[in-house]
Each structure stands twice: as structure tokens, then as C-alpha cells.
Amino acid sequence: MSASYQHTQSVQPTAPSPTLTEDMTGRPSPSPLQYAFSGKTSAHAGRGGQPPFAAEVAQQQLTNLFGTPVKAQGKRALYVHIPFCRVRCSFCNFFKYASSPQLMEQYFQCLLVDLERKAAQPWSQSQPFDAVYIGGGTPTDLTAEQIYSLGERIRAWLPLRDDCEITLEGRLNKFNQHKFERALAGGFNRFSFGVQSFDTQVRKAAKRLDDRETLLKQLKSLTASNSATIAIDLMYGLPHQTTQSWQQDLEDTLESGVDGVDLYQLLNFQGTGIQRALDNGQLDSLMDTPQRALLYRQGADYLNQAGLKQLSYCHWASTDKERSRYNRLAKSGAEILAVGAGAGGNIGGLSYMQPRDIEPWQTALEANQWPVAMMMAKGKQHQRNARIVGACDQGAVSAELLGEQRFKHAIPLFSAWQQNGLAMLDDEKVTLTLAGQFWSVNMANGLLAYLNENPLAA
Ligand code: SF4
Taking every annotated instance into account, which residue ranges of this chain make up the domain Radical SAM core (predicted)? Predict the structure, then answer.
């Protein structure tokens, strides 16, 4: 994703004085990486839509959608949610239920009902799925037989492409050889482990289990088997992290032999253990956004110089096995079939959330209703917007993607990005600089706001 400057004289804005705000353009700064915006506007770009439907309308909408085979050939994925964790990590505000074998078995049986019912619908059967993602929570806390059974049922009940990416997310802790083998037998071909940091002190403070040596040994064993894609998440901005410990995390990542790595910024820690530690004085302070930005640059530079392939602003692949297909589809607005309590889906221009609590989700299933807590239409521009979000995520917005006329129309914004050190503009595309990649969510939101507030003349 290296940016290269070419001439810009031949591309001219079509509107004389469009509305441009600092939220769209960023602000001038000697260090745009650190100061172009005051903070990340949200964890993901392009969220939002119309007001939610009333419950009975949502039921009817889903019945209509699921009952209709799709004609379009867009990509689609399945997301299955497992809302259990054994320990709550200090930075997490996703934790929902403590893992217990009884509760998980009860949940698992309901999950199969949800899955089978949705899989049987004409919508689901009419086109193969490109990716499956079992996320959480900690899906690897399922038993070996539950993991096997889930993979097997998904493959039996849903049409999947031959090269479908089937990911199991989770922790390395207690993910033993037997579980790995049963997961492989069930059809899983990709594993995504939350490591966050290899540093034992950072891990302890974050309430992560296992020390550095244990993690490295386990990852090396998994990758040496060469039987699946192994990816990990790292997080920057955690308490006790330093430039040196982050560097060691990056080096450990390469040493572990994993096929892919995500670099995530610590965000949205309100209501977490970190927030409580700050409030009660156990923790003096946290890195601010400009400090975290420097860690992002350190990580991106290191991984790029090591020859990894950058697949998005935050994801790198070290082998061709890693495709990160589910994440790419989800970020670019592909249709997602959601299964499980707390799962979020997106089909037919509608987004929907299933109840976060198990009880209402289970009650709806038992009443033969769709378990839906909230549903809304995504707005008529949702496909274009999703393409923009996906393009910013991957570091460049092209005239081809945006349409020649709209690309020219957005040149005042792109020029401002360039002046602020966030992008490089040429006739065919605007390419985010490293600083722009760090702020890619803000920039995607900025471009969407620009197009919204400065509509193209009909
Ligand atoms: S394992 Fe994941 S979902 Fe569970 S508490 Fe930790 S970060 Fe949150």
C-alpha cells in the first residue's frame, strides 16, 4: 500500500464551494499520524441507518427475506456467536457470560436450532457461502465434540464454496491438540487467536491467561502442523506496554510462524476493568491516541519491512494461506447471516441484531419466531457506502470504485486529505498514507459525510 504521487492537474472539482469540515478533512499538523483527528470516531466506519422497525414488522421482513431465493451473485458469509468466556479481559466490554459446561451445552443445543432453521430457508440455500466465522466470546471454550459438531452441521446444512474460509476464534489457553484435531475434522480451516500481547506482565495486567513462553510454544506447534491458517490479534495501547515490549510482540509474532496478524488499537474501554483500575487509582494513566499512533507506525513499518503483505490498514499476511476473507467481507458490506444470541447480520439491505441475552433469544426460538432484537434498513446508498468503507480499510479509493464523476466531485476533500498528509492523490485513485491508514475509519466516515452533505447534481 505504498503511496506514490502523480500529477493532479487534470482532475478538477465539479462543485465550486462544497461543505468541508474538519471531521471530514482532518486538520493540518506537523504529525498527521498523531494529530490529524482528536480520536477515532468509532471502532467501525459507516454504521447507522434508518430508524428501527417495530417488532412485528421485523418478523415479517425476515420471513419475506429468508423465504426468497437471492438472484444477485454478491458474496455472503455466516457469523455464529458464542457469548462465553472463562475470564473477563481487563480491556473488554464484550464479555457476556462466564463459561460453564451446563450453560454452554444448553446454549449449544439452541444454537443448532437457530442454525438449522435459518440454513433451511430458500435465501440460505440459493447461493453458496464464501466464509464462516465462529466468534465470541471464546468459541474455543466449546468442547472438542461441540466444535466438531458445529463445523460438521454447518457444512451439512449450508451450501459452502469449495474454498470457503471457516474460522474458529478464541484463546490458545486450553486449546489442546485434541480440540485442534476435532476442529480440523469438523472442517475448520482457519483459527484466529486473541493474543493481544506476548509480554507476560502486560498479559497478567490484562487478565490474559498463559505466559509468553507457553503461547509461543503452542503457536509454533500449531503452525508447524501446516494443517490450517493460524492468525492472531495484537493490541496496542494496553497498560504497561512500552515501545520495547511492543517491538518484542512484533518479533514474537514472526517467530511464532503465524500466517496472519491484526494490530488493534485499545479503544472504548469505558465500563471495563481498565476503566475501574483508572478510577480507583490502581492504574495511573493510559497511553493517549498520539502515543498509540506511534505504536501503530512501529508495527506497520516492522511488518511491511519484514515482507508481510498488508491486506488492510490493520491486517498483515505472512503466507498466501491467510485470506482474512470474513473480515474483508464484513467490512465491505457483504451479506452476513447471523446465528446465536448477540449475533449481528446484514441481508437484503437490512441489518439486524439478535437479542444479546440468551433468554429472549431462546424464547423466540421456542416460539418459532425469528430472534431479532433490532432491525433497520441500511439506507439506499448502503452498497456504495460499504464499498467506500471497504476501500478505505484497504488503503485506497479508486475512481473506478467511486465512479468517475463522483471521484471528481470529491476532489476538494481528497486534496484536503493530501494537504493534511493523510493521502496521495492521482488521476485514478486516492491512496492513504500511513497516517491516513491509522485514521482510515475517520476518513471513511469523512468521505461518507462529504458525499452526503454535497450530493452530486442529478
Ligand atoms: S476473551 Fe474476548 S470476549 Fe472474552 S473477555 Fe477476553 S476479549 Fe472479551
Answer: 70-306
